[in-house]
Design goal:
The protein is mainly alpha-helical and 72 residues long. It is built from one helix and no strands.
Length: 72
């Protein structure tokens, strides 16, 4: 028994059906890339320097979880 030759046709059909999807992905990706480049060309505002008086102290605390007790 020989294998049918329909495998090559299926491959061509899948290429034809996937091409529009791949084209859309390409266009969306290229658009994001182009927009990202456009944004970086604008001059950025300089960040204001903070003095030691303006810096705020940060306190980190740990909140313990409540212990589970077994009730009889």
């Amino acid at each position: 028994m020989t294998k049918p030759v329909t495998r090559k046709k299926r491959s061509k059909i899948t290429k034809v059906l996937l091409f529009p999807l791949l084209a859309i992905f390409f266009l969306v990706g290229w658009s994001f890339y182009w927009i990202g480049q456009k944004e970086t060309k604008q001059p950025k505002k300089p960040l204001g320097k903070t003095t030691s008086r303006q810096k705020e102290e940060l306190e980190v605390i740990v909140i313990p979880q409540e212990e589970r007790t077994l009730l009889s």
